[in-house]
C-alpha cells in the first residue's frame, strides 16, 4: 500500500490490518509519554485547500505522536491563492522531500492526481464530494470497538448523501468489511449514481431505525447547496432528524454516530448528541489512533 486515496482500493485484509494497528496504537494514547520514535526523520506535509480544523489537527497530532516532522501548508495564504497550480505545488513538495502528503481539496480526484506527481505517499483527507477514507476507517474502528464486530452490522447513513464524501467512503469500506449499509435521505439529496453503490436506499427513516445497529447522521452541507434541496429546516428535521423519541425506537445496543461538526437541532437533537449512545467524541479520539496507524503503515518502512 503506497497511498490511501479511496476506501474502495482497500482489500478486506488491508482494512483489517489498519484497524488492528490502530487498536494497538490507541494503547499508546493511554500512556503518560504518548510519543513513539517510529517516524523520526520523516516529513509529513498537511496540504489543505479547504478548511478543516478537526481533520488537520488530527493528522498533525498523529504524525507528531509518531515523531515525524510536520509542515502545515494552508492554501489560503500561500502562493496557491496567487494562482499556483496543484502540479507546481506538488513539485515544490517533491523538492522539499516530503515523505507523506495529506491533502484536502475541493476538487474530486485531486488526491489521485497528486499521487502521480510526488514520490511520497499521498493520504486523501477529503476530495470534493468524492471520498474521505480516514473518516470511514475511524468510523469502522469506532463501531468495532463499541459493538465488537463489523461483519453483519446493519448501518444506516442518514441525510445529505449527495454532498457527502463520508457516505461514499463508508459504503465502500463497510461493505468490504461485511456490514450492510442503507442510505436514508430525501430523493433530492441522493447522488444520481446511487444505484451503482453497493447498498440499499430508503426515504423513510422511521422504517429503518428499528433494524439498525448503527445510525450515522450526516451534516447538512448548506455551504455546498446553491439551490433548495428541501422545503425548510423544520421539514427536514421532522423527516430526517434524530431526536430522543426516534432514538428510543432503535435497538437497545445501537449507537449514533456523526462525522462532525454537528448542527444541533437540525440533523440531531441536543438530547441525542449528549447521550452516552452517541460516539462523536470517541470518533475524534479514535481518529488520532487511526491516522497514526495509516501513517505508520504507509511511511514506517518496516
What are the low-pLDDT stretches, counting only 5+ consecutive residues below 50?
none
Question: Could you tell me how far the N terminus lies from the C terminus, measured between alpha carbons in angstroms?
Answer: 13 Å
Strand content: 5-15%
Class by alpha and beta content: alpha/beta
Mean pLDDT comes to 92
Sheet having the most strands: 5 strands, parallel
How does CATH name the architecture of the largest domain?
3-Layer(aba) Sandwich
- Secondary structure: number of strands: 9
InterPro entries: Asp/Orn_carbamoyltranf_P-bd (IPR006132), Asp/Orn_carbamoylTrfase (IPR006130), Asp/Orn_carbamoylTrfase_sf (IPR036901), Asp_carbamoyltransf (IPR002082), Asp_carbamoyltransf_Asp/Orn-bd (IPR006131)
Function: Catalyzes the condensation of carbamoyl phosphate and aspartate to form carbamoyl aspartate and inorganic phosphate, the committed step in the de novo pyrimidine nucleotide biosynthesis pathway.
Protein name: Aspartate carbamoyltransferase
Keywords: Pyrimidine biosynthesis, Transferase
Amino acid at each position: 500500500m503506497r497511498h490511501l486515496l479511496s476506501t474502495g482500493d482497500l482489500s478486506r485484509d488491508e482494512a483489517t490490518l489498519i484497524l488492528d494497528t490502530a487498536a494497538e496504537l490507541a494503547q499508546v494514547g493511554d500512556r503518560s509519554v504518548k510519543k513513539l520514535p517510529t517516524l523520526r526523520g520523516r516529513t509529513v506535509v498537511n496540504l489543505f485547500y479547504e478548511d478543516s480544523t478537526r481533520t488537520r489537527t488530527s493528522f498533525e497530532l498523529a504524525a507528531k505522536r509518531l515523531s515525524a516532522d510536520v509542515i502545515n501548508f494552508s492554501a489560503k495564504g500561500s502562493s496557491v491563492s496567487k494562482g499556483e497550480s496543484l502540479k507546481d505545488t506538488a513539485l515544490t513538495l517533491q523538492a522539499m522531500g516530503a515523505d507523506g502528503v495529506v491533502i484536502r481539496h475541493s476538487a474530486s480526484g485531486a488526491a489521485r492526481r497528486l499521487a502521480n506527481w510526488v514520490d511520497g505517499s499521498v493520504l486523501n483527507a477529503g476530495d470534493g464530494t468524492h471520498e474521505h477514507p480516514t473518516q470511514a476507517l475511524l468510523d469502522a474502528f469506532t463501531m468495532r470497538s463499541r459493538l465488537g464486530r463489523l461483519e453483519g452490522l446493519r448501518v444506516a447513513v442518514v441525510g445529505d448523501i449527495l454532498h457527502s464524501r463520508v457516505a461514499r467512503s463508508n459504503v465502500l469500506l463497510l461493505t468490504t468489511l461485511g456490514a450492510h449499509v442503507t442510505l436514508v435521505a430525501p430523493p433530492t439529496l441522493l447522488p444520481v449514481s446511487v444505484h451503482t453503490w453497493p447498498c440499499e436506499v430508503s426515504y423513510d427513516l422511521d422504517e429503518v431505525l428499528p433494524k439498525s445497529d448503527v445510525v450515522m447522521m450526516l451534516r447538512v452541507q448548506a455551504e455546498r447547496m446553491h439551490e433548495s434541496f428541501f422545503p425548510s429546516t423544520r421539514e427536514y428535521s421532522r423527516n430526517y432528524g434524530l431526536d430522543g423519541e426516534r432514538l428510543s425506537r432503535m435497538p437497545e445496543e445501537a449507537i449514533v454516530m456523526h462525522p462532525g461538526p454537528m448542527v444541533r437541532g437540525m440533523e440531531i437533537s441536543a438530547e441525542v448528541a449528549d447521550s452516552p449512545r452517541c460516539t462523536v467524541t470517541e470518533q475524534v479520539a479514535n481518529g488520532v489512533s487511526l491516522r497514526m496507524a495509516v501513517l505508520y503503515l504507509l511511511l514506517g518502512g518496516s
